[in-house]
Amino acid sequence: MKNNKPSFSLSRRNLLKGLGAASLLPLVSACSSTGLSSSSAGRVVIVGGGFGGATAAKYIKRFNPAIDVTLVEVNRTFHTCPFSNLVLAGQRKLEDIAHGYTELKEVYGVKVIHARAEDVDPIAHTVKLSTGTTLHYDRLVLSPGIDFRWNAIEGYDEAAAELAPHAWKAGAQTTLLRNQLEAMEDGGTFVMSVPDNPFRCPPGPYERASLVASYLARHKPKSKVLILDAKDNFSKQGLFTQGWRELYGERIEWVSLSNDGKVTRVDAARGEVETEFGTRHKAGVLNVIPPQKAGIIAERAGVTNADGWVPVKPNTFESEQAKDVYVIGDASIAAPMPKSGFSANAQGKVVAAAIVASLAGFEPVNPTWSNTCYSLLSPDYGITVADVYRIEDNKLVAAPGGGVSPLDASPAFRKAEADYARGWYEAIAQDTWGTRY
Amino acid sequence: MIRSLLALLLTVPLSVLAAEPAQFAPVAQLLSGGVPLEHGLKLDLPSVSEDGSAVAVGIQFDSKQLQPGDRLASVHLFATENPRPELISFRLLSEHVLADFNTRIRLSESQQVIAVALSEQGHSWISSKEVRVTISGCLVPDAQQETLASMQDPRIALPRRIKSGEPVELRTLIKHPMETGLRQTADGKLVAQNLVQTLQLAIDKQPALDVQFASGTAANPYVRLVVQGKSKELEFRWQDQQGVEVIEVRQLSL
């Protein structure tokens, strides 16, 4: 069955085509009023200043500077998850992955409000902020990233995350996990719990395991990494396992779902976990990456589905449930596009084009997206997966020709990909925020 | 006027509607003319799966739907577009087992999953859900991963604490590749079919549950089930296509 819930805007378009009555047109446009104030080119509110939201803000302004763009982001400094595993391994400082909003404000004229968006009324077209302010929008972009399903694993809640960090949102949690890793005694085990799909950054846990192992190899040679996984397969698995054997021998152990890898209970105070079939593991450092869902504001806006993520129309990323609300990045269901910073950036540009077109009364352009996920197995060993995505049959699909790094490549090849990864980071940070903190 | 025109238009589906689940041939055969009820059977599946090789599914029957004196006899799961539609079925042979199961299934592509429950007196219930399967390009299999030829490492998880009279949740898993007979090796040869066929549970020596696995059951067949708290001895018996059996016995003590 295809989606049999027709979208409002599609229906209207079909109606116009079907009737073909020019005399009806003024009437239709009158009643499909967007609430656009006649004096302005439109008001766009964007919630979330990460890869998706900051990119959307900048590109709307680039495409049409007359549009009034307000970006709502609680933090004055944004720390990227990409490259946060290098911070964990002591290869970069936290400030190296910090970005601010000065360029968006000063060069592009984006209004930036540092507050929490607390509620959305999609009928009234308003967003309520933690400061008490209510913002009115013609088009809303939600790019809220993820939130965690606290207690989906017994014993793992916000308080437990202070003892057994997730570090799956970069910043204070990254520092906390880094400090624990440094303080761990030689011989301790770094235990990581990895959730089932879908979750933010599919290759991320395995990159983290690699870079933690690279730190341990130098500083705590008797220590190991134990990955407890709620899956039987993972992103770039063949490449990771080959690289692990080459670089770290037996230092990294991966326990799959079918080998009792799924963590079902956490005792954060004792640094202990229990798996589905009752195996207990004692950690020197315990890193729990919990099951996830769309950022909470998406739930408040009423655009999430029963699985906790946001169904969107693939060509524009407008919510299937609420008109004029666009949802991009990790919160949206864009599969087969992965939940990555690169994807969110690409979606930010497409949504910018769709909104600019829609405010001007044009049809959206037919988009394509690209994504590359770089993973570092060591500072000099990089692997990638790259794909181009397009619309087919009203579905987002991967175009043929994408692919991953080859198996059995030379050290020079892996080193080159690690250099590309660093280049990629500089380029995408420049494209998204344009400025360091 | 425009409003009502729009409303009218909204009722016209833009795309093809799903076939009626009860009309799907294997389901129709099972129902043999009976008209299933659409409430009472809960099918829990994600709307999107990024790995069709193991999709978690939950199935629960609300026993209040039964007439006095009737009891649930079986629960069956089908996939409409898999090469073979059978996913798994559960035959409930005693009152000690509740109709509350979780397992992992294979979905070869985006499709509809249908659950059917039948009672002893011939009543039936149906539930269905669309699942979109998007194989992530990121998945690069590990070529060096071992493939088993026979059943290994049976696992049974009992709750840490059992309260008198309360239902007891059990999880079972046995390692096995569940070869469908449709898979080809790199050099184009078909890998022979090799399935775990059944998991039988006897409670205090009496047959209680018969789980029939199929090619649509995910590798390393997993079953979560719930038994009545008054049960004492549980015997689990897995049997593969060659007739090999693995038997595990657990005592439930308070």
| Spatial strand order of the main sheet of chain A | 5-2-1-9-20
Q: How many structural domains of chain A?
A: 2
**Can you identify the CATH class of chain B?**
Mainly Beta
Could you give me the name of the CATH homologous superfamily of chain B? Immunoglobulins
Mean pLDDT of chain A: 91
Give the overall shape of chain B, derived from the CA principal axes: globular
List the helices and strands and how they pair.
The complex is a heterodimer of chains A (437) and B (254).
Chain A: H1 8-19, H2 25-31, E1 43-47, H3 51-63, E2 68-72, E3 78-79, H4 84-88, E4 98-99, H5 102-106, E5 111-113, E6 117-121, E7 126-129, E8 134-136, E9 139-142, E10 146-148, H6 172-183, E11 189-194, H7 204-219, E12 224-229, H8 237-248, E13 252-255, E14 263-267, E15 272-275, E16 280-282, E17 285-288, E18 292-294, H9 296-300, E19 310-311, E20 325-327, E21 332-333, H10 341-360, E22 368-378, E23 381-392, E24 395-398, E25 403-404, H11 411-432
Parallel strand pairs in A: 1-2, 1-9, 2-5, 9-20, 11-12, 11-17, 12-13, 19-21
Antiparallel strand pairs in A: 3-4, 6-7, 7-8, 10-18, 14-15, 15-16, 22-23, 23-24, 23-25
Chain B: H1 2-10, H2 25-31, E1 41-44, E2 48-49, E3 55-61, E4 72-79, E5 86-92, E6 100-105, E7 111-119, E8 124-133, E9 152-157, E10 168-175, E11 196-203, E12 206-213, E13 222-227, E14 233-240, E15 245-251
